[in-house]
Amino acid sequence: MVLWCPDWPVIAAGIVEGVPAHGPVAVLHAGRVLACSPAARADGVRRGLRKREAQGRCPRLVVVDHDAGRDTRAFEPVLAAVEQLAAGVEVVRPGVCAVAARGPARYFGSEEAAAELLVEHVAQACDVEAQVGIADGVFAATLAARAGRLIPPDRTTSFLAGLDVGALGRPALVDLLRRLGIRTLGDFAALPAGDVLARFGFDAALAHQLAAGRDAHPLAPRQPPPDLDVTQEFDEPVDRVDAAAFAARALAEQLHQRLAGHGLACTRLGIEARTVHGEELYRTWRHDGLLSAAGIADRVRWQLDGWLTTAGKRSVATSALVSLRLVPEGVVEHAGLQLGLWGEAGEERDRAHRALTRVQGLIGPEAVVLAELGGGRSAGGRVRLVPWGDERSSGESDQPCSGGGSGEPPWPGRLPPPAPATILPEPLPACVTTADGTPVGVTGRLAVTGEPALVTVGDGRPVEVWGWAGPWPVDERWWAPDEADRRVRFQLLLSDGQAFLMSLSGGRWVLEAVYD
């Protein structure tokens, strides 16, 4: 049993973006019409037309770009409505879903009654028009849904035989078959299967089985996501932190047990509360590990403390709470945590972690940040600040990137390891000269004009250079003159034991960072 929603990309655009789907609307993909509304078809718009031709046929046509994500999101309520009447729904594509017909037919008395109830329920629950088709196999049932037919058992082959080969949905194969004089699915199905495989290939052999009504592909029903949220409605409005925290602890235990029952653990927690005055408060807490029941309870208590009291000069809603809801926004499979070499983490680390998280609860998640390395070419550009507890990136290898293997973008021109220990907030002016005092420069072909021998930083005394490496050129954002950065960088080891990262740009040397 297949449920088909006609012109779904147009309907989804109307649901998500408010496009007037009852008027002339066309959804475009790659510059051609992918779907259009009945009003647009009445004016001559058809699938496959180019945008200019479609607008020429219907000047008042509303054009919308195709968005597969939008189609999928809008179809989710339809799937939920179907699952209320029939279990085991398979999503064929946005706008089309399939279920095994036997169960609903037995429960509701007949296939006709089940199909009628399904169409009526989707119309009432989602305000969406749909058609149902029943046949042997998803392919035939989809075509039956388009025709609004319920094919009796063992009559699928005769139903398919009179349909045009274009129903296969394989343009190249269909064009070839038509040039060979094969116009219907019945003509195609009459060909010997071995000859079809030898002449047209494996995909055509699969299409040959579909044309003959031998759709052996079993349904792959989706598993409805478990309802993991936990909610508590308070009999009396709660305006005290201790009373709210007591309820939050029990709710946290309930959430933790529900997640554990599904083999899951929480990494990102949403806390939602509703006040007497109808205010809806929501805050998301992130964590770079797995939240235990105590961790969930602590974050809920800290957040309630922030909502029910005044933190510094930040005034927050102080009306009493009437409901509290915990939403596990991020979950992962939980197979237990690997302990450290000496057992559990130390008490000092736990106390620091709890203290920083507490500060976040009082003054906001962006108030406590942690530095981590990311992609980039300059020493300072690789450092970014992330809120404490956020999921951190997997980190970037210290090996020179060749565009490869780990899935990270290449950074040509990046300095080799190790990274400098100290990055100066403001680069210091410097001078690099040869032994005879001639300033060292770099030609357009990246050739050094002289051997670096002396380095002077600011007003300091010259220091002898014992070793150097480079140059590493950088030419970034050349297309934006105001933001362009063109420079070469050097690593220099001095006689006093210091190691510098220096750069030359526009004939001027600067000290950027210092190595340990």
Summarize this entry quickly.
Helix content is 32%, strand content 27%. Helix 14 (293-308) runs parallel beside helix 15 (347-363).
How would you characterize this protein structure?
The protein has 516 residues and is of the alpha+beta class. The chain has 15 helices and 19 strands. It has helices spanning 8-17, 38-42, 51-57, 68-83, 102-108, 111-126, 138-147, 156-161, 171-179, 185-189, 193-200, 202-211, 241-261, 293-308, 347-363; strands at 2-4, 25-29, 32-36, 62-65, 90-93, 96-98, 131-133, 230-238, 264-275, 280-291, 321-333, 369-373, 383-387, 422-433, 454-457, 463-476, 485-494, 499-505, 508-515. Strands 14-15-16-17-18-19 form a six-stranded antiparallel beta barrel. Helix 1 (8-17) crosses helix 4 and helix 13 (241-261) packs antiparallel against helix 14 (293-308). The protein is extended and about 95 Å long. The protein starts with a strand and ends with a strand. The model is unreliable at 310-317, 339-346 and 394-408 (pLDDT under 50).
Q: Any idea what the shape is?
A: extended
Spatially, the strands of the biggest sheet line up as 14-15-16-17-18-19
Helix content: 25-40%
Largest sheet, in brief, is: 6 strands, antiparallel, barrel
Alpha-beta content class: alpha+beta
Q: What is the residue-averaged pLDDT?
A: 83
Radius of gyration: 33 Å
Strand content: 25-35%
Low-confidence stretches: 310-317, 339-346, 394-408
Tally of individual helices: 15
Total strand segments: 19
Keywords: DNA damage
Family: Belongs to the DNA polymerase type-Y family.
Protein name: DNA polymerase Y family protein
